[in-house]
Amino acid sequence: MTIVKDIEARGLHHCETTALGVLLRHEGLDLSEPLLFGLGSGLSFVYWDGKSMPFPFLGGRVKPFELTRNLAARLGLTLTVKETASPRKAWENVAAPIDAGRPVGLQLDSYHLDYFSTKVHFGGHVVAMYGYDEQDVHLVDTGQQGGAVRTSRAGLARARAERGPMTARHRSFTIALPPHPAPPWQEQLAGAIRDCADAFLAAPIANLGHRGIAKAAEQVPRWLLRADDPARDLPRAALLMEQAGTGGALFRVLYRDFLGECAGLIDDGNLRAGHRLYAEAAVLWTDVSTLIAKAGESGDAAHLEQAGAILRDLSRIEEDAMRRLRLL
């Protein structure tokens, strides 16, 4: 058995920040999950629907792995990413750093992981790997999935080889702190907030950012007609918003807490206003998910009409928050 020493297998709310936390703590940098999420400019919104999709998807963060790239660039980290079409090479890419005493991040499809009780394909899942033997590998996943967990090497190989939406080509990555001292992370907060606000406000298509929330406000009231099985599809959508690694309220709780930590370090009226607005938004997003679940359980479209009205308010609230934060 090969195990990386001194791993703190702390499972957080979100998969990518959980993996980043493991890799960075091993390098000597321990940041809270809201700081990891916010420094990676992780907040976003997407309303995603298509002819091939069984039901629409509401996403609250940037694309998989974009958060990691953003964080590495912001903090001056050395991010080494490897991808390959070869399963043999893919295993070598993770075994070598672990043999050398360094944990590895992996992007894969969670469907094939043995410890996942809910079998749903999601190709943007990220875990940290810190050991292996002939049969199994040792991973750190979210707290919801158990934190320190094990899965079979065969299952891991299938998860890494899966192809489909958001999957990567056996992607693995390691992180190292810069060889020379970089500016402290506290000096990077304002830039990370501004970058996130700029991207949110300047989203190139209408189903992203605050315009995407406005689009959701138009579409969600029709979800009883859109669903093949409303009693299944709507509560599942609500569950994904609150519990599927989002930290609650479609990642708005994480961003609220990030802004709160920043407000304790930066004296700025626009930052305090943005924090207040995202605290309000977090409560309203939970209200939306509750109403969507109730509509699926009852078949009453009035719940979706109410959810649509709240989403219209959320579009305005988040646009206002980001316009203020952009001025930081």
UniProtKB/TrEMBL annotation:
Domain of life: Bacteria
Alphabetical list of InterPro entries matching this protein: BtrH_N (IPR026935), DUF4872 (IPR032369)
Domain Butirosin biosynthesis protein H N-terminal: 14-142
DUF4872 domain residues: 155-325
This protein's name: BtrH N-terminal domain-containing protein
